[in-house]
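Quick one - inputs below.
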Amino acid sequence: MTNASIVPAVIHEVPLQYYVFFATALFCIGVTGVLIRRNAIIIFMCIELMLNAVNILLTAFAAYRADPNGQVFVFFIMAVAAAEVSVGLGIIVMIYRNFQNTDVNLLSRLKG
Amino acid sequence: MQETVLPGATAPFSTLLYVLIPGLPFLGFLLNGLLNKKLSGTVAGAIGTLAVLGSFLLSVFLFVNFKYQYTVNLFDWISVGSLQIPFSYQIDQLSLLMLLLITGVGTLIHIYSIGYMHHDENVGKFFSFLNLFVFSMLILVLGANFVILFIGWEGVGLCSYLLIGFWNKNTSYNNAAKKAFIINRVGDLGFLLGIFLMYLTFNSVQYAEVFQKASLGQFGNHGVGVVTVITLLLFVGAMGKSAQLPLYTWLPDAMAGPTPVSALIHAATMVTAGIYLVLRSNVLFTLAPQTLEVVGIIGLATALFAATIGLAQNDIKKVLAYSTVSQLGYMFLALGVMGYTSSFFHVLTHAFFKALLFLGAGSVIHAMSNEQDMRRMGGLRKALPITFLTMLIGCLAISGIPPFAGFFSKDEILSHVYEHSKVMWIIGVFTSFLTAFYMFRLLFLTFFGEFRGTEEQRHHLHESPASMTLPLIVLAILSAVGGFMGAPMFVGKHYLADFLAPIFTYSRQIMPAAFNTEPEHSTEIMLMGISVAVAVFGIGLAYVLYVARAQRPVEDDAQRSAPENLVYHKYYIDELYDTIIVKPVMALSTGLYKFVENGIIDPIANGVGRVTLAGGQLLRAVQTGSVETYLILMVIGIVLILGLNFGRL
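Output:
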């Protein structure tokens, strides 16, 4: 239940569009990073960046609309991110053990 | 006097009896076929012989206890709408006599084969094929409708192929087998068309129904002319199976098979299937006088034609082959002049003496270490006394010398022909002169004079073992006394004609004139006298040429005069068929292969494969193996999904 009257006036000091632009910019930076960087760990960092951009957006909307659903969803995302990172880093460690570096260009054995 | 078939008459004995008669040979076929290499030659031969002997004993039992015609219904075979074809057997005088003939002569030939094929490595296969043949032939004569007859018809054609090409390592034998089968098939086409037309006309293929309707003039919506067409088509089938002009060329080539095969299939049984067909459908043929004319003319022409070729042959089996074609011509001639009983009489006597002659020839070939050329034989009567004596009886029988069997049957045929047409009679008498001549030419060249073979062959000359000479003796006795079943002047009545009369009841109703004529006694004696005189003249001429003057046939590459050359090369008929039929068909086949198979069908089939491969190559480009490409594609994909789903908002 969203009630615009519950929202304190001070939140409206920073307009919602700023948060949207900010989150979008972060997300795009993250995507660009994933596509461009060669180091697997950096790619993971960019993925985290994307996730966090989404977190910011969700939190902003939750605050502006006094809707707790957004913040709850943020918790979910954080938990999932943690799990995914653990698995992903485990894979990267294995890659490092076999190739001695983490350059993704080397992972091309599935070439058809 | 037995009664004509009553459509409701039931079999007096259990169905098992009738199943066993063809069933025993079939069992023999299975046993010998499956246990082919595991059984010794003698055991295989024993199985085969006992199977046919069993059928013979059962047939004798049926014959002795025969009181009336009946049908044995085994099971409902084809039942589609109005098309009803039950699998049933017809037991009447004709089928009983054929049963006795097939199983009786068959047993003798099986016994003979035990000795003849003893050294062969595939004895088991031989006996299994022989049994399969007997099975098919029995189905043919037992069937109660034309379709079952056709099953047996095809079966014997198949077995003929299998047995002619028995020694299948030799390509020319395989070609002979193929030739026999293919020419038979040409005849079968006519036969099938005849059956179809028959069904359209009479709405049935069951003998009882078809013949009853025909005799009452019920031809569906057609006139009586349809019967002429049906009978002509059936006769085409008979021409192929019984080696009449122009479908006879397979029979001489069929001599490539082992001699017992020639004796059983190409002398005594399979080739008489055509005659059986005509005899069985005698009503239809009586209703179609034009067809009978055609049958008679073709029979006579075949008889003369083959006899002339037989004069110049040097292979002992080829002479007998052409003799068979010629005698079959006589049988069809008899049918053509509506001497049905005399035709069947000749079938029986011919089976006896032709089987005898073939088996005797086999004995000679066996003794001569597989030599078949008469120019290398000579003076064998001291080394092979039993064979000589029995073959002498056979030759006397076929030449028509009384009191042997051939005299009575051939004379009866000729007397029927005499009443029909004097010209045909003269040609028939001339042909019997030729028959006597070339048969005794065979006898004299083989058994008289000095031995013309190699020293090694002379060394191996020996009379055949008992398993081979016993059947010869039995057949010789049959050839000697078998004629008396149809010798009314000598024994009082014509046993065979009286027995067979019920088969021709409908024909007699339609055309009584042909059945009730009895030639005058004096005419009969005159005809008999002429026949015998002509035969004796033929024998005498052969004696003069081949014994007194000791003429010998020349080698293959010797010079011959033009007519001699024509006859020696069998009138170049094989070459003619090769040019006008075989070569065009082969050319068509090669053309189709090159242009349709290689040019159209193969590219389509291969093309489908190639398209699939090319498509695969194209799609493979997606699998680059590089993570970056996959990520980019993922991002693009997500953008597209979002754009297409929410872009319209």
